[in-house]
């Protein structure tokens, strides 16, 4: 607060010196028409109060470049009131402030190349195959939020509060949704003083019920005045450049922390390059600052989703500068707006590391072909752009959502949170399907390269099993499955089950050693003749699943 007072007073003094003329003599009496000391004091107080109010309400950084508009207005007023040589001097000052204003306002026109260089991504072809023994974080946030609202009765003094912003993170090696309880208004904050805690719910198990965790928080986004967490951060770090909303992060002991990304402008006061985070303990108000290289281990989303979305925009639009993004649009690719948090979707790899996913599409209207996709590290901000198989045309996220809408048009169901995975070596969209009330109905998987191959089931793992069958039926060898090792074995059939699937038959085999195998007659036509007691020479992929996908098979009993 003291820093803001000093900043406002200095701004008032400088403004008063510029505005109030040194002398202002009446032509009739040739005497000064005002008391200059009084005018300076009054102007100083007025400008200081205005400056204090603007900076306090907006939480604007207190770098002097942030006062460019004030300086421009003040110099214009100063020129109007001045006369003679004083007007000439203040005219020079006006030209300087005008040049500075033009420089700041025009920065987006000439710093596009620097923005692109700041976020230029490493490029690869395809992401690593997904381990099908794991369960993707596939519970949609809209569904999780609905369940949390229905569990809101667990909160004491319920009428004081409402559910806050929902986000994904890893806590104690489990993927969960976190949502703080927030004040529902000024008077509720005045009476309640602190919020009672936060909700947590599994991000992988749709059957999980939300749990309310009690922990008092005084510094929150919905608090007011000095207890508002964004303002508290600004008071502690008046010159930092923040970008994005505050986020709640939970450590492995269940203690909450509010974090916010900070960085630097790329040119003038335009563009943003993230450098670190500020952390606030919402109970005590204790504040810490960390560079990205030094953030605590429990932080998953050090880089705010808003900052990632901005970086994606730079990378997609400014490959050949600003004007190309407006007129020619050569090589321009637009980031999708289908993400769950500021147009990006948080996903986790097999090591529990969080990335932000975004797919890119063509700027040309009515084109749903994906040009590529990006994964941005949530802790470091480093991003990788994947082009996909350039010999194939991939459908973008909007195309996947349109397929779901047409598939369930009578039920009026829709998809949410489409994420691209590498399932069995096939680029595939996994999308939760919700009904009109926001309740989860099933999981839909569709091939990005072959949209005619699609399945849906009640769980992600069941959908994966059906998808593997659909790929085999469609002629895929699923040899990219999780990078699984190809192995061979000789087995005797204990049980066999055959299921008709379109023009082909899916054969499920139980061997005497207890292992299960699955094969399509499209890949191995003679598998239709397998019976109990047959001796089989099998080449399969050791994916670790219950049913192991077969690549080749020979029935020595009949061959």
Descriptors for this entry?
559 residues; elongated; transmembrane; alpha+beta; 27 strands; 7-stranded mixed β-sheet
Give structural notes.
Keywords: Membrane, Transmembrane, Transmembrane helix. It comes from Sporosarcina quadrami. This is Sulfite exporter TauE/SafE family protein. The protein is an alpha+beta fold and 559 residues long. Helices cover 28% and strands 30% of the residues. A hairpin with a 4-residue loop joins strand 24 and strand 25. Helix 1 (2-19) packs across helix 2 and helix 1 (2-19) runs parallel beside helix 3 (68-81).
Average pLDDT across residues?
Answer: 88
Poorly predicted regions are: none
Helix content: 25-40%
The number of helical elements comes to 12
Structural class: alpha+beta
Number of strands: 27
For the sheet with most strands, the description reads:
7 strands, mixed
Distance between the termini: 87 Å
Shape, per Cα inertia axes: elongated
Please tell me how large the radius of gyration is: 31 Å
């Amino acid at each position: 607060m003291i820093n803001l007072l000093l900043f406002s007073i200095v701004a008032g003094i400088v403004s008063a010196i510029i505005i109030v003329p040194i002398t202002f003599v009446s032509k009739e009496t040739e005497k000064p028409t005002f008391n200059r000391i009084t005018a300076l004091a009054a102007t100083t107080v007025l400008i200081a109060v205005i400056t204090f109010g603007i900076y306090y309400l907006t939480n604007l950084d207190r770098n002097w470049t942030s006062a460019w508009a004030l300086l421009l207005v003040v110099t214009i007023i100063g020129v109007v009131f001045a006369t003679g040589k004083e007007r000439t001097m203040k005219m020079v000052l006006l030209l300087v402030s005008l040049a500075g204003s033009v420089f700041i306002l025009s920065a987006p026109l000439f710093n596009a190349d620097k923005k692109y260089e700041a976020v230029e991504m490493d490029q690869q072809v395809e992401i690593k195959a997904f381990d099908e023994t794991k369960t993707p974080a596939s519970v949609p946030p809209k569904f999780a939020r609905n369940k949390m609202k229905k569990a809101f009765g667990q909160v004491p003094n319920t009428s004081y509060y409402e559910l806050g912003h929902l986000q994904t993170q890893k806590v104690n090696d489990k993927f969960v949704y976190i949502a703080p309880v927030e004040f529902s208004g000024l008077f509720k904050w005045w009476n309640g003083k602190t919020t009672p805690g936060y909700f947590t719910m599994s991000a992988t198990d749709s059957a999980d019920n939300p749990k309310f965790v009690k922990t008092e928080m005084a510094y929150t986004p919905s608090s007011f005045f000095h207890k508002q967490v964004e303002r508290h951060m600004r008071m502690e770090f008046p010159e930092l450049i923040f970008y994005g909303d505050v986020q709640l992060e939970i450590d492995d002991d269940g203690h909450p922390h509010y974090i916010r990304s900070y960085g630097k402008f790329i040119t003038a006061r335009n563009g943003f390059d993230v450098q670190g985070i500020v952390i606030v303990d919402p109970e005590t108000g204790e504040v810490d600052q960390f560079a990205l290289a030094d953030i605590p281990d429990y932080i998953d989303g050090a880089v705010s989703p808003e900052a990632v979305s901005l970086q994606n925009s730079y990378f997609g639009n400014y490959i050949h500068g600003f004007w190309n993004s407006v007129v020619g649009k050569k090589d321009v690719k637009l980031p999708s707006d289908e993400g769950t948090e500021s147009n990006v979707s948080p996903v986790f790899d097999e090591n529990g590391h969080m990335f932000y996913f975004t797919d890119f599409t063509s700027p040309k209207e009515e084109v749903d072909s994906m040009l590529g996709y990006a994964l941005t590290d949530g802790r470091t901000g480093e991003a990788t752009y994947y082009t996909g198989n350039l010999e194939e045309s991939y459908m973008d996220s909007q195309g996947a959502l349109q397929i779901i809408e047409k598939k369930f048009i009578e039920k009026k169901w829709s998809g949410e949170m489409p994420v691209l995975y590498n399932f069995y070596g096939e680029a595939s969209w996994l999308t939760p399907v919700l009904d009109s009330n926001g309740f989860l109905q099933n999981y839909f998987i569709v091939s990005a390269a072959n949209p005619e191959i699609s399945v849906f089931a009640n769980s992600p793992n069941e959908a994966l099993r059906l998808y593997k069958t659909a790929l085999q039926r469609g002629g895929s060898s699923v040899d990219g499955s999780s990078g699984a090792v190809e192995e061979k074995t000789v087995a005797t059939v204990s049980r066999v089950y055959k299921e008709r699937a379109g023009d082909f038959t899916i054969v499920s085999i139980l061997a005497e050693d207890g292992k299960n195998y699955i094969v399509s007659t499209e890949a191995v036509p003679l598998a239709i003749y397998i019976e109990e007691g047959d001796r089989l020479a099998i080449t399969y992929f050791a994916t670790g699943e219950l049913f192991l996908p077969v690549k080749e098979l020979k029935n020595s009993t009949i061959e």
